User: Fold Thymidylate kinase from Cylindrospermopsis raciborskii CENA302.
Amino acid sequence: MTGKLIVFEGVEGSGKTTQMQMLAQWLQTLGISFLLTREPGGTDLGKNLRKLLLEISYDQTLDEMAELLLYTADRSQHVSSIIKPNLATGKYILCDRYTNSTIAYQGYGRGLNMSIIDQLNQIATGGLESDLTIWLDIDVEIGLSRKRGQAELDRMEQETIEFHHRVQRGYNEIARNHPSKMIRVDGNQEQELVQENIRKILIDTTSLLSCLKK
Assistant:
Protein backbone atom coordinates (compact mmCIF):
# COMPACT_ATOMS: atom_id res chain seq x y z
CA MET A 1 0.00 0.00 0.00
CA THR A 2 1.29 3.43 -0.95
CA GLY A 3 1.16 6.15 1.68
CA LYS A 4 0.00 9.75 1.38
CA LEU A 5 2.01 12.95 1.68
CA ILE A 6 -0.16 15.60 3.33
CA VAL A 7 1.45 19.01 3.62
CA PHE A 8 0.43 21.92 5.82
CA GLU A 9 1.26 25.43 4.62
CA GLY A 10 0.68 28.95 5.89
CA VAL A 11 2.22 32.15 7.21
CA GLU A 12 3.73 32.38 10.69
CA GLY A 13 1.25 31.59 13.46
CA SER A 14 -1.29 29.97 11.15
CA GLY A 15 -1.72 26.99 13.49
CA LYS A 16 -0.04 24.31 11.41
CA THR A 17 1.59 22.50 14.32
CA THR A 18 -1.60 22.37 16.37
CA GLN A 19 -3.73 21.16 13.48
CA MET A 20 -1.18 18.51 12.50
CA GLN A 21 -1.14 17.15 16.04
CA MET A 22 -4.94 17.08 16.20
CA LEU A 23 -5.09 15.29 12.86
CA ALA A 24 -2.47 12.78 13.99
CA GLN A 25 -4.56 11.93 17.06
CA TRP A 26 -7.58 11.35 14.83
CA LEU A 27 -5.64 9.13 12.42
CA GLN A 28 -4.43 7.12 15.40
CA THR A 29 -8.01 6.43 16.50
CA LEU A 30 -8.69 5.14 12.97
CA GLY A 31 -5.73 2.79 13.12
CA ILE A 32 -3.92 4.60 10.31
CA SER A 33 -0.12 4.60 10.46
CA PHE A 34 1.33 8.12 10.24
CA LEU A 35 4.48 10.18 10.65
CA LEU A 36 4.79 13.81 11.78
CA THR A 37 7.68 15.71 10.21
CA ARG A 38 8.71 19.19 9.15
CA GLU A 39 10.87 21.34 6.90
CA PRO A 40 13.41 22.43 7.77
CA GLY A 41 14.45 20.00 10.48
CA GLY A 42 12.94 16.62 9.64
CA THR A 43 16.31 14.85 9.57
CA ASP A 44 19.51 14.99 11.64
CA LEU A 45 21.10 17.11 8.92
CA GLY A 46 17.95 19.19 8.75
CA LYS A 47 18.06 19.99 12.46
CA ASN A 48 21.47 21.59 11.99
CA LEU A 49 20.30 23.43 8.88
CA ARG A 50 17.26 24.67 10.79
CA LYS A 51 19.57 26.25 13.37
CA LEU A 52 21.54 27.93 10.61
CA LEU A 53 18.38 29.22 8.95
CA LEU A 54 16.28 30.24 11.93
CA GLU A 55 18.13 30.30 15.23
CA ILE A 56 21.69 31.55 14.84
CA SER A 57 22.44 35.28 14.92
CA TYR A 58 24.75 36.40 12.15
CA ASP A 59 27.25 39.23 12.18
CA GLN A 60 26.17 39.78 8.61
CA THR A 61 22.90 39.19 6.78
CA LEU A 62 22.40 35.69 5.40
CA ASP A 63 22.59 35.86 1.63
CA GLU A 64 19.17 35.23 0.08
CA MET A 65 20.47 32.70 -2.45
CA ALA A 66 22.40 30.92 0.30
CA GLU A 67 19.15 30.75 2.28
CA LEU A 68 17.37 29.20 -0.69
CA LEU A 69 20.10 26.61 -1.20
CA LEU A 70 20.08 25.65 2.49
CA TYR A 71 16.31 25.07 2.39
CA THR A 72 16.78 23.01 -0.77
CA ALA A 73 19.52 20.91 0.83
CA ASP A 74 17.23 20.23 3.79
CA ARG A 75 14.45 19.14 1.45
CA SER A 76 16.64 16.84 -0.61
CA GLN A 77 17.81 14.95 2.50
CA HIS A 78 14.28 14.92 3.91
CA VAL A 79 12.70 13.46 0.79
CA SER A 80 15.32 10.78 0.24
CA SER A 81 15.76 9.58 3.83
CA ILE A 82 12.36 10.21 5.45
CA ILE A 83 9.49 10.91 3.08
CA LYS A 84 10.02 8.37 0.31
CA PRO A 85 10.88 5.41 2.59
CA ASN A 86 7.85 6.03 4.80
CA LEU A 87 5.51 6.51 1.85
CA ALA A 88 6.66 3.13 0.59
CA THR A 89 5.51 1.50 3.84
CA GLY A 90 2.04 3.00 3.46
CA LYS A 91 2.24 5.72 6.09
CA TYR A 92 0.35 8.98 6.06
CA ILE A 93 3.05 11.65 6.29
CA LEU A 94 1.95 14.93 7.85
CA CYS A 95 4.58 17.45 6.83
CA ASP A 96 4.91 20.99 8.15
CA ARG A 97 5.92 22.90 4.97
CA TYR A 98 7.16 21.64 1.61
CA THR A 99 7.84 23.12 -1.84
CA ASN A 100 5.12 25.80 -1.70
CA SER A 101 6.83 27.37 1.31
CA THR A 102 9.91 27.97 -0.81
CA ILE A 103 7.81 29.53 -3.55
CA ALA A 104 5.96 31.76 -1.08
CA TYR A 105 8.88 32.76 1.17
CA GLN A 106 11.89 32.83 -1.11
CA GLY A 107 9.97 33.55 -4.32
CA TYR A 108 7.33 36.07 -3.33
CA GLY A 109 8.85 37.11 0.00
CA ARG A 110 12.48 37.48 -1.10
CA GLY A 111 11.78 38.13 -4.77
CA LEU A 112 14.12 35.40 -6.00
CA ASN A 113 13.87 33.99 -9.52
CA MET A 114 10.90 31.62 -9.75
CA SER A 115 12.48 29.56 -12.50
CA ILE A 116 15.50 28.83 -10.29
CA ILE A 117 13.20 27.96 -7.36
CA ASP A 118 11.18 25.59 -9.54
CA GLN A 119 14.35 23.88 -10.78
CA LEU A 120 15.75 23.47 -7.27
CA ASN A 121 12.43 22.14 -5.95
CA GLN A 122 12.37 19.62 -8.78
CA ILE A 123 15.93 18.51 -8.04
CA ALA A 124 15.38 18.28 -4.28
CA THR A 125 12.14 16.30 -4.51
CA GLY A 126 12.91 14.20 -7.57
CA GLY A 127 9.46 15.26 -8.77
CA LEU A 128 7.64 14.02 -5.66
CA GLU A 129 4.51 16.12 -5.11
CA SER A 130 2.16 16.12 -2.16
CA ASP A 131 -1.06 14.14 -2.39
CA LEU A 132 -2.78 16.97 -0.57
CA THR A 133 -1.70 20.42 0.61
CA ILE A 134 -3.74 22.21 3.25
CA TRP A 135 -3.26 25.97 3.29
CA LEU A 136 -4.24 27.46 6.63
CA ASP A 137 -5.16 30.97 5.53
CA ILE A 138 -4.94 33.45 8.38
CA ASP A 139 -4.57 37.20 8.66
CA VAL A 140 -0.86 38.02 8.80
CA GLU A 141 -1.17 40.34 11.79
CA ILE A 142 -3.18 37.76 13.76
CA GLY A 143 -0.62 35.06 13.04
CA LEU A 144 2.31 37.21 14.11
CA SER A 145 0.53 38.29 17.28
CA ARG A 146 0.12 34.60 18.18
CA LYS A 147 3.85 34.07 17.73
CA ARG A 148 4.78 37.10 19.79
CA GLY A 149 2.64 35.76 22.62
CA GLN A 150 4.29 32.32 22.62
CA ALA A 151 8.07 32.64 22.61
CA GLU A 152 11.10 34.40 21.25
CA LEU A 153 10.75 35.04 17.53
CA ASP A 154 13.08 33.24 15.11
CA ARG A 155 14.85 34.93 12.21
CA MET A 156 12.00 34.47 9.76
CA GLU A 157 9.34 35.60 12.22
CA GLN A 158 11.32 38.80 12.81
CA GLU A 159 11.02 39.82 9.16
CA THR A 160 9.12 42.99 8.27
CA ILE A 161 5.33 43.00 8.03
CA GLU A 162 5.72 43.84 4.33
CA PHE A 163 7.69 40.62 3.85
CA HIS A 164 4.96 38.55 5.51
CA HIS A 165 2.29 40.20 3.38
CA ARG A 166 4.27 39.29 0.25
CA VAL A 167 4.43 35.69 1.49
CA GLN A 168 0.67 35.70 2.02
CA ARG A 169 0.13 37.03 -1.50
CA GLY A 170 2.30 34.18 -2.70
CA TYR A 171 0.06 31.60 -1.07
CA ASN A 172 -2.97 33.29 -2.59
CA GLU A 173 -1.41 33.08 -6.04
CA ILE A 174 -0.46 29.43 -5.63
CA ALA A 175 -3.96 28.49 -4.45
CA ARG A 176 -5.58 30.41 -7.30
CA ASN A 177 -3.32 28.89 -9.95
CA HIS A 178 -3.43 25.32 -8.54
CA PRO A 179 -6.80 24.90 -6.76
CA SER A 180 -6.70 21.11 -7.00
CA LYS A 181 -3.25 20.89 -5.40
CA MET A 182 -3.62 23.33 -2.52
CA ILE A 183 -6.90 23.61 -0.63
CA ARG A 184 -7.62 26.68 1.46
CA VAL A 185 -8.91 26.37 5.02
CA ASP A 186 -9.89 29.47 6.98
CA GLY A 187 -7.38 29.50 9.84
CA ASN A 188 -9.11 32.40 11.60
CA GLN A 189 -11.82 30.05 12.91
CA GLU A 190 -11.84 28.17 16.20
CA GLN A 191 -9.33 25.29 16.32
CA GLU A 192 -12.03 22.62 16.48
CA LEU A 193 -13.82 23.97 13.41
CA VAL A 194 -10.57 24.22 11.48
CA GLN A 195 -9.83 20.60 12.35
CA GLU A 196 -13.32 19.52 11.33
CA ASN A 197 -12.81 21.14 7.92
CA ILE A 198 -9.42 19.46 7.49
CA ARG A 199 -10.83 16.03 8.30
CA LYS A 200 -13.64 16.52 5.80
CA ILE A 201 -11.13 17.46 3.12
CA LEU A 202 -9.15 14.28 3.81
CA ILE A 203 -12.27 12.15 3.64
CA ASP A 204 -13.24 13.76 0.35
CA THR A 205 -9.82 13.60 -1.30
CA THR A 206 -8.00 10.47 -0.07
CA SER A 207 -9.06 6.99 -1.07
CA LEU A 208 -7.90 5.45 2.21
CA LEU A 209 -10.51 7.40 4.17
CA SER A 210 -13.31 7.33 1.61
CA CYS A 211 -15.05 4.51 3.48
CA LEU A 212 -15.76 6.91 6.34
CA LYS A 213 -18.32 8.70 4.20
CA LYS A 214 -20.52 5.59 4.09
